[in-house]
Amino acid sequence: MNKIRAATLGAVLALTGCANLNPFTPYEQPKVEMPAAWTGLPQNAKAYDNAQWWKVYGDATLDQLIDEALAHNEDINVATARIDEARARVVLADADRDPTVTANFQPSITRITKRGSAPTFPGQHFTNTDYLATINASYELDLWGKLRGATDVARANLLATEAARDTVRNSLTAQVAQGYFALLALDAQIDTSRRTLETRQSALKLQQLRMNSGVASEFEVRQREAEIAAVEAQIPSLERNRKAQENALSVLLGRSPRAVMEGNIARGTPTAPADDVVPEGLPSELMLRRPDLRQAEQQLIAAHGNVGVARSAYYPSISLTGYFGGESKHLADLFIGPARIFQFAAAINEPIFSGKRIGASVDVAKAQEEQALAQYRQAIANAFSDVSNALAAQQAAREVRVAETAHVDALQKSLALAKLRFENGISSQLDVLDAERNLLQAQLNLTDAERAQRAAAADLFKALGGGWKAQEASR
C-alpha cells in the first residue's frame, strides 16, 4: 500500500513539474525594414480609398460585370468552399478538447460445447444469454496545451484561407476590369479600321474615275487597291482577338458554356481617371491592405503553432475513462440495482523510446516554420515591388497616351496637307498613302494607350490590395 501511495505521489509531483513547462512559445511578428514613405509619387495625383475602386472609371456596365464575376466566378466558389472546409477543421480540432460520450447496448447468446476438453456436470447450462448496456465517457486532460494549440493552428489556417479568398477577389476584379478595357479597345480598333477601309474604298472609286478620264494612271489605282487589301487583312485578326477576349471575360464572369459561346458582353463608356492614383497612408499599412500578406502571416502563425504541437509529444498524455450501466442475463433485470456496473479509470502515457520520431517531427515543424517565414518575407518584398512597378507603369502609360494623342493630331494635319499637295499636283499619291497609313497605325496605338492607362490604374489598385478598408471593417 505504501508503495502505491509513493508511486502516486511521485506521478503527481512529476506532472506538476511538467505543468510548469510550456511546449508553445508566443508568436512574434517578424521585423521587416519598411520604407518611411512612398517614393516616386506623381504630382497632382489623387488617393482613392473607396472599397469598390473600379467605380473610379464611372462605368455602370463595368460595375455590373464585376458584381456578376464576384457572384458567379468559379475560382471564388472554390475559395469559398475551402473556407467552409477550414471552418469545419476548426470545429474538428476544437472537438478534441471536449469529452466523448457514447452509449452501448450489447445483447449476446453463447453456447459452449459438450464435447470439449473442459469437464461438464449434471444440470449445467450450455446456452447463456447476456445483456450489457453502458454509457461510456472519455476525456483527455490538456495540461500542456497540445489540443488548444492544434485548435489555434486550425484557426490560423482558417484566417489564411479567408485571406486567400480575398486575394482571389482582388485579382478577379482587376482581371475583369482589364479584360473589359481590352475588349473596348479592340472594338475601337475595329471601328477605326472599318472607317479607314470605307475612306480608302471611296478614294479608290475616285481614282478609278480619274483613270477612266485619263487623269490618273493604273499604277495609282493599284496602289489604292493594295492599301485596301492591307486594311481588310488587318480586320479579321482584330475580330479574332475580340472574340477571344469576349470568351475570356465570359469565363471570368462565371457564365455557362452556352453563354460563353454566345459571347454577349455588354459595353459601356468608361472614362480614364482624371488624376493618377497614389497609395493612401503609410507603406506599413500595406501589410493590412494586401490579403496575400495576411495569408502569408497566418500561414506563418500556423507553422509556428505546429512546432508547439510537435513538442507536446514529449509530454505525458493523461486520459480519463469510465462507464456506467448494467449487465444481466435477463433483459428485464438489466436496470435493477444488483445488475449495476461501473468503472472509472485514469491512464498516463509517457513516451520513453520512440526511435527519434518525436525529435524528427519537431525538426519537420521547425523546417516548415522557416519556409513559412521565408515565404512571408518574400511576399512582403514582392508586394512593394508590385506597388513600385504599378506606380511606374501608371506614369509611363499616362505619358504614352499624351504623346500618342499629340502624334494623332500631328498626323491628321499632315494627312490634310498631303491631300492638298496632291490635289494641287505638288506631290504624288504616295505621300497621301504614307500619311493615311501612319495615321491609322497612330490611331490604333492611341486606342491601346488609353487601354493601358486604364489598366495601369487597375494594376495599382490590385497591388495596393483593392478594397482593403471594406475588408478590415468586415473583421
From TrEMBL:
One of the Pfam families matching this protein, by short name: OEP
Keyword Lipoprotein: yes
UniProt superkingdom: Bacteria
SUPFAM superfamilies in UniProt: Outer membrane efflux proteins (OEP)
Gene Ontology molecular function, alphabetical: efflux transmembrane transporter activity
Subcellular location: Cell membrane
Signal peptide annotation: 1-21
Chief place of localization: membrane
Family annotation (InterPro entries): MdtP/NodT-like (IPR010131), OMP_efflux (IPR003423)
Membrane topology: Lipid-anchor
A GO cellular component entry from the record: plasma membrane
Family: Belongs to the outer membrane factor (OMF) (TC 1.B.17) family.
Protein name from the UniProt record: Outer membrane protein, multidrug efflux system
